[in-house]
Amino acid sequence: MNTQHPEPGLVGKIIRYPLAFLIVVILLAFPAVAVFMGWRAAAMLMAWQEAKGWVETPATIEHLELEVHSGQDSTTYRVDCRYSYVFNGQTFQGTRAGLADGSDNIGSWQQTTYERLRRHHEGVESDPVSCWVNPDNPQEAVLDRELRWGLLLFHLLFVVVFGGIGLAFALVPVWWRRGAARLRSLQARYPDQPWRWKAEWAEKRLKPQGPGRALWLLAVFWNVVSLPVAAIALWDAVREESPWALVFLGFPLVGVGLLAAAIVQSRRYRRFRDSRLELRPMPGVIGGSLRGTLHLAGDLTAIGDVELILQCERTFVTRRGGKSQTCREILWEQQRVVPTGGATFGLTELQVPVDFSIPSDCRPTDESRGSDAVRWRLKARAALPGANLDLKFDVPVFGTADSRPPGDQPPAGPGPG
């Protein structure tokens, strides 16, 4: 007898698929925060532009208090005030101290504004305090119409960070689905030739790896976050004469270092980006060899001997005490030095022979499991004036019909030069 189970409700689905629910919450929460903070930043800018046409009018402070809200991690401040002013023969009352409402601890505007108004309120300053009145709506006034740049940068920081994270969470699944569909199509077309499953290996000409995107992303993210914070801290240090705030300048220095490292990698890549590795045959063979020609292209004047390194690297994830850690292990490595014969001035292309014998007990390329992957990489290094040659190629190495069984090793390639 067939028993039909009712479709689980929303709560049941959340319990059954907690990870999917978390991803949905993140997809909604991060853009929502970015939109909210962007709206506040836009409102602040529009109010600042509008207040430029307001009329300066004398005001009388009737009530003044600095509200202090202390939490576990921070303390915020808010100027609570009430003042009266006369405009076009009518008396009005206002409660806005600045263009932005609410309490905050961004900079020292709240404390500084309170001290300035207190001196007027207590008669220490003989000059009357001024407010700025909207001539089209005299009931709308503010005591300080200047834009708080620190607060604006704080809002924009949330827009960039949370908006970027939300966008990444939205695009990554799209890219992953497209890549998975492309992989399934290639697997169906070439079921026994896994080296043709990657677009980079579709041809026998391999391009060098480009500059690390992770380094560029880290450099951009670090600078986007640290520069506004350092600007606010520096502003406070100048206004409040607080040298301790200068400690925050160390964060932009780290960002400059990351950016410099990313630029060096990119310049080195652009210098030799036309280089290519041609494998004959394709792919490298377990129990056989990896052979081909490395075509170096670029300004190769005074290049030294080229060091070639073929590595089999395993990347795997270990979990201990509820924490995961990515580890790397070199399973096999061999290097050769190829003499260049003394490069002459104006040399822009050089052919370097590649010939490595691969033992039969090595593991083939296997990227099917992200938590335990095996990759083969060919590195080419040489000394050059300026940026040294440092190229990396992901190369396919598999067991094929040409693979020799263990104990029947292929003939050794040329020894070190």
Q: Given the C-alpha coordinates, what overall shape results?
A: elongated
Strand order of the largest sheet: 3-2-1-4-5
- Please report which band the strand proportion falls in: under 5%, 5-15%, 15-25%, 25-35%, 35-45% or over 45%: 25-35%
The level of helicity is: 25-40%
Assembly category: single chain
- Main beta sheet, described? 5 strands, antiparallel
What's the N-to-C terminus distance? 78 Å
* Average residue pLDDT: 81
User: What is the structural class?
Assistant: alpha+beta
Rg from Cα: 33 Å
Low-confidence runs of at least 5 consecutive residues: 1-8, 10-14
* H/I helix tally: 6
| Order of SSEs | HHEEEHEEHEHHEEEEEEEEE
Could you give the count of β-strands?
15
How would you describe this protein?
It is a single chain. This protein is α+β, with helices and mostly antiparallel strands and 417 residues long. The protein is 35% helix and 28% strand. It has six helices and 15 strands. The protein has helices spanning 10-16, 18-51, 109-121, 149-189, 213-240, 250-271, and strands spanning 55-70, 75-87, 90-94, 129-133, 141-142, 205-206, 276-279, 284-285, 289-297, 306-320, 323-338, 349-357, 372-382, 389-395, 397-398. It has a five-stranded antiparallel β-sheet with strand order 3-2-1-4-5. Strands 6-7-9-12 form a four-stranded antiparallel β-sheet, with no helix packed on it. Strands 11-10-13-14 form a four-stranded antiparallel β-sheet, with no helix packed on it. A hairpin with a 4-residue loop joins strand 1 (55-70) and strand 2. It is elongated and about 105 Å long.
